[in-house]
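We store chain and fold; thus.
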Amino acid sequence: MRAGSRAAAVHLRYLQRDGVTRDGAPGQLYSATADRADGRTFLDRSGGDPRQFRLIVAAEDGAELSNLRAFTRDLMRQVERDLGTGLDWVAVDHFNTAHPHTHIVIRGVDEAGENLVIAGAYLAHGIRERASELVTIELGPESTMERQAKLVREIDQERLTRIDRALLREADDAAGGVIDLRAAAGEPRSDFDRQLRIGRLQALERLGLAEEIATGRWHLVPGMEETLRALGERGDIIKTMHHALTRHGAERGAEQFAIHDLREPLAAPITGRLLGHGLGGDELGDRVHLIVDGLDGRVHYVELPAAGTDIAHTSIGAIVELAAERGAPRAADRNIVDLAHQNDGIYRPVDHLATARADPGIADPDAYVEAHVRRLEALRRTGMVQRLDADHWRIPADLEQRAARHDTGRSQMPSLRVLSALDLEAQIRSDGATWLDRQLVVRDPVQVAQGGFGLEVEVALKRRRQHHLTHGDARREADGGVRYRRDLLATLERRELARAGGELAATPAVPFRMPAPGETIRGTYREAVQLASGRYALVESAKDFTLVPWRPVIERSLGREVLGLVTDGGISWQIGRDRGVSL
């Protein structure tokens, strides 16, 4: 697979997340020679690789291996001998499932720096056989009794099993696809194998995946393999959801589980508490999953593309919202239309590159223009734009509107928004402006179910209301209602900023100063600070430092001087020469 740097970084972060070792600690990357490998250094070395290979080695008897790390190194030495080249790889052992397993990431180049090519058959079967040989060497050959016991345990499992694969091969070889298990059918079988197949076929029949068309003669339903794979995946997802709930001491019935299909847009936004996150699908890193305890009383499982989602830094317990993205004019489309308008409807990447190189606010002009060309390639496949040659594209004047309508009509991936980085308990005690406060004062608060997390939110709102009554930020009316101070959110935000600024002042050698509306601030953007009221940028000058609302546009200026005008609603940043970005 293609190794996108962002997706690869997300993948490595998830492999090292909390809770994957035997004692629940973060995973530790290692390599062929080091017990502590540096993921960032590995990614830096991999930057120009054409691809990246990701493997999961899950020995059935992995729990009995004395040293999973030594086993992995032995396996990778054998792989190197098979391929005839040294490999640059890192791995991490996981013990957070019933079967200990190892994630291995291999660079896409060989020891000579040339593109590494690994045959598909070797990836699918060869490495598995090598791993099996090593397990046999350490644990000894599997006895007949052990093998039979494992197969018997597969009879009632709702997933694709080894028995199913044998049945599928037998059906392919049989006349008319009929499996004949009658004793006189002529097929030499042991009594165990015959009873094993009959038991499994009866289990498949209960699932609607097999049919006994006559005594001892069976027919497999078309699509059986795909259905069993889907059932197995769903079963794994449900186990993951139960595990996330258990960590929070919560209980929900299976009827309250909602597993969303990645291919379908969300019918309605999902707001709730983040219970867990991790790699999605087969854990090879293309997708990440989120488990959200929703305000609607259901627990939601949603998968998102890993390349566009950086959830690893969002705390478990945070309040999040997932909503289907709606088509809106993209900045890239607007840039393309503006440049084409200046050139009689023709967009030229070479002209765009010259403009980008003259803009000090664009850190990587080549990548910037390449992203616009990729967007054009996607639009060309829809017939919206025409490529005349490598450096000339014909652009319609209404491209922005047409592209936005096209994006709206497609099945959109959900977008993630963090509404509060704090869990409910921390919000109740906070001196800042929290998500709970916004629900208290907004005209139309979100609707909550009278059960599950919705009920927890109702209780938290009552406790937060009492907090404000106790601290003089609200008063009880004669009719029993509660009236909050007019500027509650702004007051809470100022209080929190003053407290946080005073605490941070002990670290810099300069004092904290609260910015005033209409003031121009100039200084070095040092870091982002997460508070209950939101995320703020710490801007330090020679005399003092201040905290102002953070926005993504400023992150590329980390460690550099920034200039901005403080407004009542936030700050208007001046990013680059003569370029204002209003936020």
